[in-house]
Amino acid sequence: MTPRLLLAGLLLAVLAPAASAQTRLFDQTFAVRDGQSLVLNVGSGAVRVETTASNEAQVVVEGRGDDLQGAFRRLRFTAAASGGTLTVRTRPERAANRDRAQFSYVVRIPRRFNVSIDTGSGAVRVGPLAGRLAIDTGSGAVVAGDVTGDVDIDTGSGAVSLGRVSGEVKVDTGSGAITVAEATRGSLEAGSGAVRVGIPRGANMELRASGSRVTLDDTLGFVGRRERDGASGRIGRGGNRLSIETGSGAISVTAR
Predict the structure, then answer these.
(1) How does pLDDT run across 201-216, given as a tens digit for each residue?
(2) Cβ(141)–Cβ(159) under 8 Å?
(3) CB proximity list for 105: less than 8 A, separation 6 or greater
(4) Rg (Cα) of the chain, in Å, rounded?
(5) Other C-beta atoms within 10 Å of 223: how many?
């Protein structure tokens, strides 16, 4: 290697970590209890909610970019716990639209918690949860673990991946695949993208599916109308209804 190439490589090695480094802008803990709620409303940025066995909540904000402290100040970020609700919010000043900084939000809460997230854009990740989960994002992928309560997710574009959902599940994405490890009631709608759903063995439910191609696991014991692009009928004795629809994309329903 020539001295010039060696020097360039050393410069890249030195500069790369600095370019990717995040600065912690906020870090605070709050006393909370099982069964309380998190309400998070931020304009943009990645959001990660981790669940723990602690009786405390922690809110962390990190960022990178030009004039970072000024950009963070213009977000008018607040985090407060009151009346059984932990509220994390931004109310950006108009001048914040010109900022080039990027922010990410991490919230750690007890596993038994209700969670509501509203973000204009950015990926959202939520750990296993014993409570209700609601997510509304203009664009960005959504990933969540097992949820024992109801789930309601709306994203303009972005893939959605969920673990086992014990309650009612509602997912609506303009474009992007939907994957649910296990569900028995609710509705899954994708403007475009494949949909994959697991059904517990021995389930009793009504099933309706419509897509470019619909594949049902024969071991589910489905009874009803079954065609290449759709299916409507029951599994077991019937009961709760699960509706699956995609404008363009295949649907796969498997036994778990």
Answers:
(1) 999 999 999 999 999 9
(2) yes
(3) 40, 42, 45, 46, 47, 48, 59, 60, 61, 88
(4) 22
(5) 12
